[in-house]
Write a structure and sequence with these properties.
Chain B: InterPro entries: Rab-GAP-TBC_dom (IPR000195), Rab-GAP_TBC_sf (IPR035969). By secondary structure, chain A is of the alpha/beta class. Chain A has 9 helices and 6 strands. By secondary structure, chain B is mostly helical. Chain B is 56% helix and 0% strand. Chain B has 22 helices and no strands. In chain B, helix 7 runs antiparallel to helix 8, helix 10 packs across helix 14 and helix 18 runs parallel beside helix 22. Classes of the chains: A alpha/beta (216), B mainly alpha (448).
């Protein structure tokens, strides 16, 4: 956050700052639902199970800059775990989701956070998300517990309901606010050093059109 | 890339100049894909790129050139047509108006009926199927060859059971053996499924819960799958399979793999558009049969690819590696482009392999795809890699115009919505052709 000024300077000449986010958590906690609510503002009970990893992209227009978020939506089932480390390595943000009506998924967040720390050390933003707050009667994890656990981990925390559309935008704004502005420069150098930067914004906006991105 | 088999380039044929082994061969293949109608065109390509790179005749009929149909002689010398046409399942040997997986193919079928052979709907092919099926002891190899190019929908239940080795080739034993297998499965239900959670292990409870979550979101576009009776059927199949295969257990995506079997075995009792199927007409006895056969056939299918679903899924990892290697050899520009953009094959092909491409094509084409899958038998995993390459390179030109993000989004929702059998068969045939080329020349196309 300290380097925000630098980020907004470069934003005028460089392509969109790109950030990779990986969504982690047990099966059926609502990772895909959160992303779909964020992307398309809709909720559907009948998503097919995510197999392996899905990719989505959305541009966020913030007050002082525009960022492109590239989201990796991982499958929660145990059997697919071996796929995940490479995506964690590749991501500067990890969103660890649990289901407030499923205590086991809450307890398992420790494993996910640990996995992220193993791959990225402290060079990562982690957000703990308690999803499905609409299931009021079935709640097994209180907001206080979630908050305490997040403090314990030293990570950010929010509760959401993708079904009700509650706090989904807040979740992504919170993440965006924590993004380091310098990231734009380094990720740009990584991959696009041979590309004329002037060309990129056009390509980016085309890509966004296809991805259904819009201001949120 | 070196032109490896000069002879093949000089092969006669009406295809555009440039030859299949040139750098622009993919373009010409893509053009072919767009322009060719029916298997006749595919047959020409296959003829041109025959086995040892020898120029083969390009004027053979579609039937002779169709992929595995080269066994014509063995078919003509096969057993005489038995007058007892019963195949043990009491099926009518008359096509009813409409079958699942067949909704988009009717137009093509009529168009292609002008061509000799080639189509599953063709009367001559149907006769050949019936002849094979009517034998006292079904020649499964011959059936495999014939089924590779598509099974008439009304024969699918019988043919799939035989191809998978679930039904006995021996007509005398078939019914009794099937009855025994169905009973064995039904005995598993009270033993494994209809028990209190207290009698299950922690892992089994988790697995059952997962299956319970996945069943309602299996094939959500087909209404009858939401019917309680089918939900129960699906859950029992998946759970009992998982219990009996502890090395893998239930893995998401296996639910998808059960759906073609359920639909095909139901089609023995229901007619018309699957969106209109009314399951209330079916007795519990019939549902049990469908369920047991679906379980038995799913088990047979998965037996051949078990390590796709065991810890760390080594089978899939291996195929992804070979897929990448194959694309590098067939279409270096695309392979390079993917690499430059940082796109990993695993990122887009994991689901392809985990679900055997079932989610990548319209459901009404899945039956046709599975005809070929099941006909491949032991060679299936290897062939699957070739099909993935053929599928991916269908969009070779487009992919090279896209950056990382555009590519991965494109490949996740690959535009096959309007596909008919024609496009699918082009992919399958091209994969077959590539296998012939590359298997007999493991390294000569190395682009080193």
């Amino acid at each position: 956050m300290g380097s925000m000024g630098m980020g907004s300077q470069t934003a005028t000449v460089s392509p969109l700052a790109k950030y990779k986010l990986v969504f982690l958590g047990d099966q059926s906690v609502g990772k895909t639902s959160i992303i779909t609510r964020f992307m398309y503002d809709k909720f559907d009970n009948t998503y097919q199970a995510t197999i392996g990893i899905d990719f989505l992209s959305k541009t966020m227009y913030l007050e002082d800059r525009t960022v492109r978020l590239q989201l990796w939506d991982t499958a929660g089932q145990e059997r697919f775990r071996s796929l995940i480390p490479s995506y964690i390595r590749d991501s500067s943000v990890a969103v660890v989701v649990y289901d407030v009506s499923n205590r086991q998924s809450f307890l398992n967040t420790a494993r996910w956070v640990e996995e992220v720390r193993t791959e990225r050390g402290s060079d990562v933003i982690i957000m703990l998300v308690g999803n499905k707050t609409d299931l009021v009667d079935k709640r097994q994890v209180s907001i206080e517990e979630g908050d305490a656990k997040a403090k314990d981990f030293g990570v950010m925390f929010i509760e959401t309901s993708s079904k009700a559309g509650f706090n989904i935008k807040a979740l992504f704004r919170k993440i965006a606010a924590a993004l380091p502005g310098m990231e734009a420069l380094s990720s740009h150098k990584d991959k696009d050093d041979l590309v004329d930067v002037n060309l990129k914004p056009t390509q980016n906006s085309q890509a966004e059109g296809k991805a259904g991105g819009c201001a949120c | 890339m070196k032109p490896p088999v000069p002879d093949a380039r000089a092969a006669p044929g009406p295809a555009p100049a440039g030859g299949v082994f040139n750098v622009d061969r993919t373009n010409s293949l893509n053009q072919t894909l767009r322009k060719v109608t029916g298997l006749l065109g595919v047959g020409r390509i296959l003829g041109r790129k025959d086995s040892n790179g020898e120029a083969s005749t390009s004027d053979r009929g579609a039937e002779d050139c169709s992929p595995t149909d080269s066994g014509g002689p063995s078919l003509t010398e096969s057993k005489s047509f038995a007058s007892d046409a019963s195949d043990g399942n009491g099926e009518p040997c008359v096509a009813s108006p409409s079958y699942p997986f067949d909704t988009s193919s009717r137009g093509i079928g009529s168009e292609n009926s002008r061509l000799p052979g080639g189509r599953a709907t063709d009367a001559a092919r149907v006769a050949r199927f019936k002849k094979i099926l009517a034998a006292q002891s079904v020649d499964v190899d011959a059936l495999r060859e014939l089924a590779w190019s598509g099974v008439p929908p009304f024969l699918r239940p019988t043919v799939w059971r035989l191809l998978l080795g679930y039904a006995s080739p021996n007509a005398d034993r078939r019914d009794a053996a099937l009855a025994r297998k169905r009973q064995e499965y039904m005995d598993c239900v009270p033993q494994y499924y209809d028990i209190p959670d207290a009698d299950r292990t922690e892992d089994e409870i988790v697995m059952l819960h997962q299956i319970g979550v996945d069943a309602p979101r299996t094939l959500p576009e087909v209404p009858f799958f939401q019917e309680p009776v089918i939900q129960t059927t699906l859950k029992r199949i998946l759970y009992i399979w998982a219990i009996r295969h502890p090395a893998s257990g239930y893995v998401q995506g296996i639910n998808d793999l059960a759906t073609p079997f359920i639909v095909v075995f139901l089609s023995e009792y229901l007619e018309g558009d699957i969106d209109m199927w009314d399951l209330s007409k079916l007795s519990p006895g019939i549902i049990s049969k469908v369920e047991a056969d679906s379980f038995g056939c799913l088990s047979k299918l998965l037996d051949g690819i078990q390590d796709h679903y065991t810890f760390a899924q080594p089978g899939i990892q291996r195929l992804v590696f070979r897929f990448k290697e194959l694309v590098r050899r067939i279409d270096e520009p695309v392979a390079k482009h993917l690499e430059q953009e940082g796109l990993e094959f695993l990122q887009f092909s994991f689901r392809w392999l985990n679900c055997l491409l079932i989610r990548e094509i319209p459901f009404q084409l899945v039956g046709r795809l599975w005809d070929t899958w099941l006909a491949e038998a032991d060679n299936f995993p290897e062939y699957l890699v070739y099909v993935c390459a053929s599928f991916l390179l269908t969009w070779s030109d487009q992919l090279q115009q896209l950056d990382f993000q555009e590519m991965i989004l494109f490949l996740q929702t690959i535009p096959t919505k309007n596909w008919t059998h024609q496009e699918l068969e082009m992919v399958l045939s091209r994969a077959f052709m590539w296998r012939v080329m590359f298997d007999r020349s493991p390294s000569h196309l190395n682009s080193g």
